[in-house]
Amino acid sequence: MIKYPKYLEDLIESFKCLPGVGRKTAERYAFSVLNDLSNIDVEEFINNLDNVKNNIHHCKNCGNLTTNDICDICQDEKRNHRQIMVVEQPKDVFIIENLNEYNGIYNVLNGSIKFAKGISIDDLNIEPLLEKAKANLIDEVILACNATLEGETTAKYIKELLSDYKDIKISRLAYGMPVGGDIEYVDELTLLRALEGRNKY
């Protein structure tokens, strides 16, 4: 079997490390680098990869992505620091922020409970939230974990961990029927959340 030159084959293997990228897509990416990108483009690509790996880290206060020790959201004194939204991933923060409706801060778990993969609550970024609870620095925790089995499990564990702090209001993002959706095509978890989050009509 004839193989590509070693360096091209190595690049293909590197692209295959990305989620959702199979052999054919990796080959297309590699040939695009080889044939379509200028040397300047390649240098910029390399610099961007280097900057992402070496200059972006997790905020010490909330777990969000930042180039500083503390992210811009946590440093913003105009935000309500006594209201904390718990999300699974940094990208969730950016989605919520783009709504321009939420003015609290965040706790980014950087994952969710997956017992099958050996990931428990202790493997998540939960300690900053618990420390704030112990210090009486929280009025409300909004659980915004994903509407999946793992997300529901994670939310329930966090609610249990906060159960001793009676002054903290714990809420959960409402999930329900999508607009234009038929009940027969909605999964059981979504239907259950719709039932639980029903409003007066």
Give the helices and strands, then pairings.
Blueprint: H1 6-16, H2 23-35, H3 39-55, E1 57-58, E2 65-66, H4 72-75, E3 80-87, H5 90-97, E4 104-108, H6 127-134, E5 140-143, H7 149-161, E6 169-172, H8 188-196
Parallel strand pairs: 3-4, 3-5, 5-6
Antiparallel strand pairs: 1-2
Helix pairs in contact: 1-2
Written account of the structure:
By secondary structure, this protein is of the alpha/beta class. Helices cover 41% and strands 12% of the residues. The strands form two sheets. A four-stranded parallel β-sheet has the order 4-3-5-6. The radius of gyration is 22 Å and the shape is globular.
Chain-averaged pLDDT = 91
Strand content: 5-15%
Biggest sheet statistics: 4 strands, parallel
What is the structural class?
Answer: alpha/beta
The total beta strand count reads 6
**SSE string, helix = H, strand = E?**
HHHEEHEHEHEHEH
Describe, in short, the structure shown.
By secondary structure, the chain is α/β, with parallel strands linked by helices. 41% of the residues lie in helices and 12% in strands. α7 (149-161) links the parallel β5 (140-143) and β6.
Provide key terms for this protein.
single chain, 201 residues, alpha/beta, four-stranded parallel beta sheet, 8 helices, 6 strands, globular
